[in-house]
From TrEMBL:
Residues 6-170 form the Glycosyltransferase 2-like domain. It comes from Alkalibacter saccharofermentans DSM 14828. This is Glycosyltransferase, GT2 family. GO terms for molecular function: transferase activity. It holds the Pfam family Glycos_transf_2. It comes from the Bacteria. Keywords: Transferase.
Length: 272
């Protein structure tokens, strides 16, 4: 069974990436000749891009230069084009820690559920399960998830998600109108238009959001601008989506305005 791993890098050297290092540790302990790694580099720093390209050459990874930060959707789609039909694709964030049993449990789940085209692990951050979640129209809610079980009403974040390439022939790939936020949940909603179930495998990955906690005002303002657009695209196709969108962005703007003691976030909402 062949797996194609797509790892999105952004202004981080590959050798400092938790997913790359934990993956190499598994390589040392197991035979992973059936795995091909694609590094999609969204980096904007030239020195990092040069080092990442050299690193990929040394490790025999496929280096995909995005020529700047083009967002998740375009990076995923560019790598997916390089992968053969019917092969399995696994998505990873640069800050994910993978566990030894991940690929073993993935193979078990695929063998056991031949009719299922997406398999997802449990993702934890600071001991809290953040994925999978229930998907109710636009709403994403935490719930008590069980492993080795199939669901028809869940969503999951991108990292650790395993997708058969044939799915993208149906869905048309990732929506490039979404740069970053809610891309995963939008994709899962599209998936259920053609497929019935998603399998949850018996493996838990750790996701770090350490770089997000100490963001500057300027960085948070830019992230909020991206969120406003992405969340609108996610909500606009659902019934009642615009009302839900307006309420959510207003609450987030108020929260950020209190954190940074600056009403720029509220002004951004009022301009839409």
């Amino acid at each position: 069974m062949k797996f194609n791993l797509i790892i999105i890098m952004y202004n981080l050297n590959c050798h400092k990436s938790p997913i790359v290092n934990s993956l190499l540790e598994i390589y040392r302990n197991s035979n992973l000749s059936h795995i091909r790694v694609f590094i999609c580099d969204n980096s904007t720093k030239v020195d990092i891009k040069i080092k990442n390209k050299e690193y990929c050459g040394e490790k025999e990874f496929v280096y995909v230069d995005m020529n700047g930060n083009k967002g998740l959707s375009k990076a995923y789609n560019k790598a997916i084009e390089l992968i053969n039909e019917k092969e399995w694709i696994v998505l990873f964030d640069q800050d994910t820690l993978i566990v030894d049993n991940y690929f073993l449990e993935l193979e078990k789940s695929i063998t056991r559920n031949k009719h299922v085209s997406i398999h997802v692990p449990i993702i934890k951050s600071e001991d809290i399960i953040i994925s999978p979640c229930l998907l109710k129209k636009m709403k994403v809610k935490q719930f008590r998830v069980e492993v080795n079980k199939n669901y028809s009403d869940i969503t999951a974040i991108n990292t650790g998600m395993c997708i058969n390439k044939r799915v993208f022939s149906k869905t048309g790939g990732y929506n490039e109108d979404i740069f970053l936020d809610y891309l995963d949940h939008y994709f899962m909603r599209e998936y259920y238009k053609y497929y019935k179930e998603v399998a949850v495998i018996n493996a838990t990955l750790i996701q770090s959001f350490s770089g997000h906690d100490n963001s500057s005002f300027e960085t948070s303002l830019l992230r909020f601008k991206i969120f406003l657009n992405d969340f609108f695209v996610y909500c606009c196709e659902a019934g009642g989506g615009k009302i839900y969108y307006s309420r959510k962005i207003l609450l987030r703007a108020i929260k950020l305005s209190f954190i940074y003691k600056n009403i720029a976030f509220l002004k951004m909402v009022l301009k839409r």
